[in-house]
Amino acid sequence: MSRAFVKEMDGLEEALPERPQSSHINYVTPRGLAQLQERVRELSASRSALELRDDLDSRQQLKRVERDWHYYTERVARAVLVRPTAQPGDKVHFGAAVEVEDEDGHGQRFVIVGEDEADAARGRISWVSPLAQALLNARPGDTVTWRRPAGDKTLEILAIGEDPP
């Protein structure tokens, strides 16, 4: 029988594929950079603890932790810190909190952040998202078109502010 059809136990020892890095510049807010650095510290601690154990489960966990550690270490190394307070306050910029209103009068607040810091449920949107791209450089009183698969939506910029810590 060909070796190609034999399941081998040593396949468990193979390295996991690397997590792909984004092709975009890794802009980060000070908060986003701190979160990435904290994640690297957590993974380093997990790695140290798992290296002390010598069982199959620990070795498998260690591979996942090392893969994630490598990913986040690279994200920190590629980080470009942008201080929102150093940006012009009269137009939407990276790190800004933006209040908008749609054509139905529904208001929302978004903060434009780095890819790793994005959390749509909390209104924190990645700077590369279609919504952020529609908002960037707009001024209060401007209307922008958010191009969405569900249909375009017109938003009016009501206010631009800082994201509180």
TrEMBL record:
Q: Taking every annotated instance into account, which residue ranges of this chain make up the domain Transcription elongation factor GreA/GreB C-terminal?
A: 88-160
The family database entries (Pfam families) matched by this protein are listed as: GreA_GreB
What's a BP term from Gene Ontology annotated to this protein?
Answer: DNA-templated transcription elongation
Lineage: superkingdom: Bacteria
**InterPro entries, A to Z:** GreA/GreB_C_sf (IPR036953), TF_GreA/GreB_CS (IPR018151), Tscrpt_elong_fac_GreA/B_C (IPR001437), Tscrpt_elong_fac_GreA/B_fam (IPR023459)
Keyword annotations of the record = Elongation factor, Protein biosynthesis
Q: Does this UniProt record's set of keywords contain Acetylation? A: no
Q: Does the keyword Protein transport apply?
A: no
For molecular function, the Gene Ontology terms on record are: DNA binding; RNA polymerase binding; translation elongation factor activity
- What is the protein name for this chain? Transcription elongation factor, GreA/GreB family
Q: What is the lineage of its organism?
A: Bacteria, Pseudomonadati, Pseudomonadota, Gammaproteobacteria, Methylococcales
